[in-house]
Amino acid sequence: VGQSDPSFPIQKKKASREYLRTIAHLRPRTNTFGA
Hints:
Shape: elongated
Radius of gyration: 11 Å
Low-confidence stretches: none
Mean pLDDT: 64
Distance between the termini: 31 Å
Structural class: mainly alpha
Number of helices: 2
Largest sheet: none
Strand content: under 5%
Helix content: 25-40%
């Protein structure tokens, strides 16, 4: 797959739903946040 940018907001660890809600470009892509 390759390297990822270290400034990318999601790292290889468990992220809370509250944190994921703050990342605007992910909100419409998931069923959880799209409802």
